[in-house]
Amino acid sequence: MSKYHHIKQIAYEANMQLPKLGLVLFTFGNVSTADRELGVFAIKPSGVPYKDLTPEKMVIVNFDGEVIEGTLRPSSDTLTHAVLYKHWEAINGIVHTHSTYATAWAQSQRDIPIFGTTHADHLTTDVPCAPPMSDELIEGNYEYQTGFQILNHFQENGLDYKEVEMILVGSHAPFTWGKTADKAVYNSAVLEAVAQMAYLTEQINPSAPRLKDALVNKHYQRKHGPDSYYGQ
Ligand SMILES: [Zn+2]
How many angstroms does the Cα of residue 36 sit away from the middle of ligand 1? Predict the structure, then answer.
């Protein structure tokens, strides 16, 4: 058995969650999961329908984007995953989807405002939207540069990738991440729900107020404060 079997199995199971959660159509979307000791991640192969996926079909890639093991071509977004793993050492799972509502906000090139406590339970800032890629970056190594577009947006806006585990890439779609592949998938589903709620909120009341600071702070402290009581 391959010494990478454990991450292939995790990546397979996490990828299979995407259609179940209604986050992907056809072959859209991909999940990867890293093994930091081995210095590699397992990612979905490119263009294989979910029903035909198996753990063995997952492709093993290093953090420079080089294929280490596998016969199929890795997801076309592999270099974006590689860049994020290389620079953000605390993450072990990454998800990319074109889920409908999150993608609609990305195409609108807008941050998703923090309107309510559902959002605040997961992150206490707006969901950031990075600007669309410049022509120069698109014509260069596009997927590789998408990774840097994400890193740069976090750096320029003083965001912490451990606090904000999601981003919209303008004109494209969301990426989410987490300590595990499961957490990254969970974040993708949460992002889609929050994106839908924010869309409906603006439909019902175009001048709906953002969540007030007292509630933002309360939710932040619930998770992070000395008296945190969120979760087990
Ligand atoms: Zn995409």
Answer: 25
Sheet architecture: strand order including 59-62: 67-69, 59-62, 40-43, 30-35, 93-96, 174-178, 166-169, 129-130
Convert the pLDDT of each residue in 93-140 to its tens digit: 999 999 999 999 999 999 999 999 999 999 999 999 999 988 988 888
Catalytic residue among 35, 111, 121, 182: 121
pTM value is 0.95
**Is 230 among the residues known to form the active site?**
yes
Query: Position of tokens 């016969």?
Result: 71
Task: Report which of residues 1 and 4 the model is more confident about.
Answer: 4
What is the CA(59)–ligand 1 centre distance, in A? 18
CA of 28 to the centre of ligand 1 (A): 7
Separation of alpha carbons 97 and 188, rounded Å: 8
Burial track 19-40 (b if 16+ CB lie within 10 A, e otherwise): beeebbeebbbbbbbbbeeeeb
Q: Which helix (H) or strand (E) holds 17?
A: helix 5-20
Tokens of 33: 């999961």
Considering the domain delimited by 5-224, tell me its CATH architecture: 3-Layer(aba) Sandwich (3.40)
Strands 93-96 and 166-169: unpaired
Q: 172: CA distance to ligand 1 center in Å? A: 6
Mean pLDDT of the chain: 95
User: Is 227's pLDDT higher than 80?
Assistant: no
Active site residue 199: no
Domain parsing of the chain, residue ranges: 5-224
Ligand 1 centroid – CA 1 distance (Å):
32
